[in-house]
Amino acid sequence: MRTAVHVVLILCLICVSVQAQSNVDFGIKGGLNFTFFKVEASGFGFTQDTASGYYGGAFLDFEIDEDYALQPELLFISLKDFKFLNVPVYLKYEVANKLHLLVGPSINYFFDFFSNKLKIRADLSSSYNVTSRIDIHVKYAIGFEELTPNSLFLGVGFRI
């Protein structure tokens, strides 16, 4: 738990130091997540099981040029008995007016496991700016290992 507090404090310090720059935005986001597990069904093969939870956190948006940005995030995710930090780093591209495509890796740190606490996933996301401060987003995370299942995230972001 101490690690999570340190990561949040470091992110807050970074946010305060970069907020003075005009090409950097800071915001918070949150929403629902749906995770899809493969479960063996009594010798009948695998079937899908779904669990739902919530997430919340902060993001930075570093403008590279008119169409591209780099967007790292720090999200706390709760899913049934599992709680973990998700740290995606996205390359953000403006596909159309107010519509963005985000792609990149994400690192997950699970608080509930004694070993293999770090998991890596690939994220594909899109966001739509409803206003200059509010966006809605959807993200699909692809897990590469059995303990890192695929997830769908739906949420809202607020630029501060």
Low-confidence segments, given as residue ranges, are: none
Q: Could you name the CATH topology?
A: Porin
Query: How many runs of DSSP E, i.e. beta strands?
Result: 8
- Structural Rg: 17 Å
Number of separate structural domains: 1
Order of helices and strands: HEEEEEEEE
Q: What's the mean pLDDT score?
A: 83
The CATH class label is Mainly Beta
Span of the ends, CA to CA: 27 Å
Report strand order across the widest sheet: 1-2-3-4-5-6-7-8
Number of helices: 1
Biggest sheet: strands, sense, closure? 8 strands, antiparallel, barrel
Question: Can you offer a commentary on this structure?
Answer:
The chain is mostly beta strands. The chain has a single domain (about 1-160), classed as Porin, CATH 2.40.160.20. It has 1 helix and 8 strands. Strand 7 (about 135-145) and strand 8 form a beta hairpin. The longest helix is centred in the first third of the chain and has 17 residues, at about 1-20. The mean pLDDT is about 85.
Salient structural properties:
mainly beta; 1 helix; Porin; single chain; eight-stranded antiparallel β-barrel; 66% strand; 160 residues
